[in-house]
Write a structure and sequence with these properties.
By secondary structure, this protein is α+β, with helices and mostly antiparallel strands. The protein has 18 helices and 27 strands.
Length: 600
């Protein structure tokens, strides 16, 4: 090829041309032999082949019986002066994490501990070259070397030579610019990228992912499965699935048979168990895994923990059952109003109102027909306020039964979520009797109030706890002692100042069978005599807490009058001598006063 030229390939004619590399000169092309001439690969005389693709380091998966032997294999690989990257695996879990698709060859020890690991690698990647290290050659070495994909190395010092033989067989280190080789290399790189993506997805997935082989042994166990069930990959890889409870093994076997028959299973809720024995509710989905020949070689399973959801659903069912039991046995009317209709009414509603439940639930049933005409405007207004999520206080409405009876009901309503939509829960308490009693009590209190206000005698309540004071005094007190009821109740010490000091103990005395005579001090200073019977008021503990009484005014007792004894001509007193009871020996009709002592 002339000096200062370079090779260029024309895709239209499939010819190589020597093109001048001088930018100043006009382009010149010299035809070179076409790849179509002579058949086969392109033969370009006077020109070198295109440069080879850049070499990369060989990726080696080291299988050893333990860490120490694995370290010796790494040192041997380093002494062989081979540009290589390596990964060590001593158990099935590490083999699963270091996927064989990521490597160019396997460097393994020969021994019973490594053989299961090697078999697992060969099952997943049969075409992966294997270099098997042995201590000394045997008679079967030459025959073993003739096996495809397996090369024996009897001496670690010959490891570089053995790896060179692997390079020549598989082309793992470098490839030429051959289009077929480059296409194969690109396909392999795409496969590595796909495997890496899939492996990252499996490792990062929050869903438990596992795979089983045809014998039911675990071949893949991701971190989410370890978190969900408690077993590590080293405890389950290569062993039967441990998460199936004994009573669910037949169910598991049937599901596995369906999956190996090629069926896709989605969303089956099954019971599994944790390592500590507690049950776990999961939703299971499976898919068959096919081999190169299309046969099912394994099953992939994905499990989602739904224990919390099932627990919440069970709690919801129990809550609904309790609500219905409570609602059906409640003495109150309980209903649910949604979308302009009554969707639930309890037994009490049917019994009290006279309608059947089917009538309540009918579309044409008008909720307002429960109410009397005078209660409908307020009920409609509260209903609109309830729909605006405003707080509606309990309200008394008048209900009209089917036979025309009227019931006073206390309505309490609240917004709830019913079947995923907002609704109004209403509780109606029949207050007809209590309202009637309240009206009767109000009438009685009104009569009592009028009686007290018009009474001519004082009526009072004197509290003893927590401090002595008048709690109530009738208006007659102003006329009798000159003080208003407000003056009585405003001062805690008013009782001590109003009653004569010698008579104050009688104010709080309740053990007397006879009326008590007290002296009250009028506002103008004079003494007012009264007679009263004290009635004690006690609390739940039996303590005296108040005195109720109605003092009646009376005149003081007149001084004893002397009379002359007709027989002796002496005057004598009508009272008994000192030391007697002090009562008059004789009583005149004028001496008998209301509330006074009766003659003996």
């Amino acid at each position: 090829m002339p000096t200062g030229c370079r090779l260029a390939h024309c895709k239209a004619t499939d010819e190589w041309h020597a093109v001048s590399s001088d930018s100043a000169a006009a382009p010149r092309s010299l035809p070179v032999r076409s790849s179509r001439e002579g058949g086969g690969r392109s033969v370009m005389p006077e020109a070198k082949a295109p440069p080879a693709a850049p070499a990369r380091s060989v990726r080696v998966l080291i299988l050893a019986a333990d860490r120490a032997r694995g370290a010796r294999r790494v040192r041997a690989l380093q002494k062989a002066d081979v540009d290589a990257t390596w990964s060590l695996a001593i158990n099935r879990a590490e083999v699963a994490r270091a996927h064989p698709f990521d490597f160019d060859l396997v460097l393994a020890d020969s021994g019973p501990k490594v053989k299961p690991l090697l078999d697992a690698v060969r099952r997943s990647q049969p075409d992966l070259p294997v270099v098997l290290l042995r201590r000394r050659a045997s008679s079967g070495t030459r025959a073993a070397r003739s096996r495809p994909g397996v090369i024996y190395c009897d001496d670690e010092s010959r490891l570089a030579e053995t790896l060179g033989e692997v390079r020549s067989r598989a082309g793992a280190v470098s490839t030429t610019a051959d289009p077929e080789a480059m296409a194969w290399q690109r396909s392999r790189e795409a496969l590595w990228q796909t495997v890496d993506t899939l492996q990252a997805l499996i490792q990062a997935s929050p869903v438990a992912i596992m795979t089983l082989d045809a014998e039911g042994r675990v071949t893949l166990w991701n971190p989410a499965a370890e978190r969900m069930f408690g077993w590590s990959p080293g405890e389950v890889i290569g062993r039967p699935l441990p998460i199936v409870p004994p009573e669910k093994r037949d169910e598991h076997r049937a599901l596995r048979q369906r999956a190996f028959a090629g069926e896709w299973i989605a969303g089956v809720e099954v019971l599994r168990r944790h390592k500590d024995g507690r049950p776990i509710q999961v939703r299971l989905s499976t898919a068959p895994m096919h081999g190169p020949d299309g046969a099912v070689i394994g099953v992939l399973g994905m499990l989602v923990d739904i224990t919390d959801r099932k627990t919440a659903e069970q709690a919801l069912r129990e809550s609904e059952a309790k609500f219905r039991t409570l609602a059906e046995e409640s003495p109150n009317i309980i209903f649910i109003h949604q979308d302009g209709r009554v969707v639930y009414a309890n037994r009490r509603a049917a019994d009290l109102m006279g309608f059947t439940r089917h009538e309540f639930y009918a579309e044409e049933f008008d909720f307002l027909q429960w109410l009397a005409p005078e209660s409908r405007p307020a009920a409609a207004d509260n209903f609109r306020r309830q729909q605006r999520c405003e707080n509606v206080p309990p309200t008394v409405y008048t209900l009209v039964t089917r036979d025309g009876g009227r019931i006073e009901g206390l309505h309490t309503t609240t917004l709830i979520d019913y079947d995923g939509r907002p609704a109004i829960l209403g509780i109606i308490t029949d207050v007809t009797e209590s309202r009637r009693a309240e009206r009767a009590l109000a009438e009685s209190e009104d009569r009592y109030r009028r009686l007290v206000e018009n009474a001519r005698d004082i009526i009072f309540r004197y509290a003893l706890r927590p401090e002595p004071r008048f709690e109530f005094v009738s208006p007659a007190a102003t006329e009798i002692v000159g003080y208003t009821p407000e003056e009585f109740c405003s001062d805690p010490d008013f009782g001590r100042r109003l009653v004569h000091p010698d008579d104050y103990p009688l104010l709080v005395r309740v053990d007397s069978r006879d009326p008590l005579r007290l002296r009250w001090i009028h506002k103008d200073g004079r003494i007012v005599w009264t007679e009263q019977r004290n009635v004690g008021v006690y609390d739940e503990a039996g303590r005296l807490v108040a005195i109720e009484a109605s003092p009646a005014t009376s005149r003081p007792r007149s001084r004893p009058r002397k009379r002359r004894n007709v027989a002796t001509g002496r005057s004598c007193s009508s009272t008994k001598p000192a030391g007697s009871s002090g009562r008059p020996s004789t009583w005149k009709p004028s001496a008998i006063r209301p509330f006074g002592p009766s003659p003996r």
